[in-house]
Amino acid sequence: MFEARLAQGTLLKKVLEAIKDLLNEATWDCNENGMSLQAMDSSHVSLVSLTLNAEGFEPYRCDRNCSLGINLASMSKIFKCASNEDSITIKAGDEGDTITYVFESPNGDKVSDYEMKLMDIETDHLGIPDTTYSCVVKLPAAEFQRICRDLSQIGESVTICCTKDGVRFSASGDLGSGNIKLAQNANVDKEDEAVTIEMQEACTLTFALRYLNFFCKATPLSPQVTLSMSNEVPLVVEYKIGEMGHVRYYLAPKIEDEADS
Amino acid sequence: MPQNTKKSSQEKKENSQRICIVNDELLKNSDDNKPFFCQLRHPRSDDAALFAFSQSDSIVHEVLSFKEDFRSWFIGDFVQSDGSLYITSQVDPLYLVLPYLIKSAGRAMPIGQILQDEDFPETRRLCSVTMDVSCLADKKGDADLKAFKYNKDATLRWLKLKVNSVAEKLQDNHCQLSGAQVSSYIRSSKSSLNSEDDCMRFAHGVVSDYLPCSLSSELKTYLGIVDPVVHEKPTVENAPQAKKSKTQEGPLEDYSSGSKGEKKTPAQKLSIAQKKLSKVDKSGMKSISSFFGAKTAKPKV
């Protein structure tokens, strides 16, 4: 028996919006510590890793570890039926091959439940090592979304160059080139608007913008986004999900091969 | 399996005689050659099933019936319209005790108390059957008290031994496990050998016939048995030679090159968003799995 209720159902709705475009289907792994999900996009160049801690749910009950294979597009369609104020309960039996979502309005007047078929998905979990990244940039999520959107007008890929002074995003294409530079500014009154850079070593990396634009669908989840980078390893884009977890996107960098040039 | 068997008619009541093949062992030490038949709870189904005890209750056999339509027996001068054949076969009493132990899990109780069942009062006979309950449970308290507490780990260990020995037997006897087969069909010796996995899976099935469902599935994970993929396509090197060798050269005239449609049918439905993604220029981008080792324990995130 698995049961998890989230009073703030809107969080789950946003989580779904954040991943459903990138992933068609995924396996939710549920254990006593919470729910998690790890999956690659269809081209296998990016990876989504999502964690929702049990503490965020009230109540949370997971008698035995289970893996729920879910079509995320369908799940998202069902979650669109929930109002933002509703609480969301996810239920799954031990034996059954279905999952049930229950949406309750705040005053309990309206209760709707939806049942959905589970699917068998073969997945390999990737082991993600605990890496110390040479640059960790925190910036307002909305700002990052804006940058990705603007630069995707210019070119297909963005080069992120992180130095002591700040971080520079640049793109170039047929119509020309564009650069956006953000300086570190920690001393604003509002914490959410701060840009902070922790750096061991300068690094320059190039990424496909379209993927970053997809990652930005998680912007409503969190006011701040964290970009972690090291040369020649995947970029990590992390959004906190309230107090209860995070969603992390990993994206392979574009590495210019000598054979290519 | 009963080796020395003899036919005897059992349960002589008015007009009700049965044909039963009984193992000699069951008849030993009994004056009137009568084993005791009674109903016990079957560990798998929880329903009543017929079992036979030897006179001193030292061994217990299960009673299996084989029944075909349109069959009757002549017994002496009578016709017995029930044509089923009963066969006894020894069963490990621990299987019968196991459901009761599971029910009492968490408490240490004397074995006599554990084996009490209102619906099947004869269950207490199991107390006197020779067996070693400590395979399934921890002995608690005084030795005379015979108090036991269910131990799942020990049980799974014991069941593993059982499955292993069944699998070994299957392997040694070259039992055909892969379903139906035409008797005149000659298989190459290679394919008739059962893989170890097949034997384990089959043996697990055999043992599961005597286990509660939940324990059966737990045992499956404990043994690491994976369900086989049904209708596995033969791999290229093992597949029999294709009959039409022509196909290997391809058709002489290729009409498909003219039409541009249906070049690629994606394996799965892609949303509009994902179609956009698949158009992204991925030159110079390595697969994410080349960065993160595949299949290590849980990711540390």
From TrEMBL, chain A:
UniProt keyword annotations, A-Z: DNA replication, DNA-binding, Nucleus
Main location per the UniProt record: nucleus
Molecular function per GO: DNA binding; DNA polymerase processivity factor activity
Top-level taxon of the source organism: Eukaryota
Subcellular location: Nucleus
InterPro entries in alphabetical order: DNA_clamp_sf, Pr_cel_nuc_antig, Pr_cel_nuc_antig_C, Pr_cel_nuc_antig_CS, Pr_cel_nuc_antig_N
Any Pfam family matching the protein: PCNA_N
Coiled-coil ranges per UniProt: none
BP terms from Gene Ontology: leading strand elongation; mismatch repair; regulation of DNA replication; translesion synthesis
All copies of domain Proliferating cell nuclear antigen PCNA C-terminal, residue ranges: 127-254
GO cellular component, one term: PCNA complex
Domain (Proliferating cell nuclear antigen PCNA N-terminal): residue spans on this chain: 1-124
PANTHER family cross-referenced by the UniProt entry: PROLIFERATING CELL NUCLEAR ANTIGEN
Family indicated by similarity: Belongs to the PCNA family.
NCBIfam families hit by this protein: pcna (TIGR00590)
Entry function: This protein is an auxiliary protein of DNA polymerase delta and is involved in the control of eukaryotic DNA replication by increasing the polymerase's processivity during elongation of the leading strand.
Protein name: DNA sliding clamp PCNA
Origin species: Capitella teleta
Lineage: Eukaryota, Metazoa, Spiralia, Lophotrochozoa, Annelida
From TrEMBL, chain B:
Main localization (coarse): nucleus
Annotated Ribonuclease H2 subunit B wHTH domain residues: 95-220
A family per Pfam: RNase_H2-Ydr279
Keywords: Nucleus
Keyword Lipid metabolism carried by entry: no
Self-association state and partner proteins as the record states: The RNase H2 complex is a heterotrimer composed of the catalytic subunit RNASEH2A and the non-catalytic subunits RNASEH2B and RNASEH2C.
Annotated family: Belongs to the RNase H2 subunit B family.
Entry protein name: Ribonuclease H2 subunit B
Organism: Capitella teleta (Polychaete worm)
